[in-house]
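The instructor's notes for this session suggest beginning with a concrete chain rather than abstract definitions. Hand out the sequence below and ask the class to guess, before any prediction is shown, which regions might be ordered.
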Amino acid sequence: MIKRVGIVILAGCFQGCASPHQVTVQADTVTLSLRAPQAARVQFASSADRYTLHEISKDRDGIWKFTGLANREFQYFYLVDGKVFLPDCRYRQSDDFGTANCRYLPWPVPPRKEANR
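After discussion, reveal the predicted structure:
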């Protein structure tokens, strides 16, 4: 009986304990999603375009999405209601301001081309 209850609780967590931050890749396009239903405004910035701030809107479930990034390495962060927000991301990299940015690495990472000798 105890094993069965544990399995039900664990299964429920997989269904209802979704990460507030997700990365989705389709073909060569990356979409970043941030669950922040209480936020009034979210902006997104990445090294892909020299940290230009992009306004993003939320859907009715409180998910903010930014799509259209090429599937190659970049660093990024969000501004949530005017404050820098770093989600729980797999990789981080220090920036020039004493903090850090999330770092996206495509998977699998393409091999580096070696220079002709």
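Then share the key points. The longest strand covers residues 63-70. The chain has one domain: 18-104.
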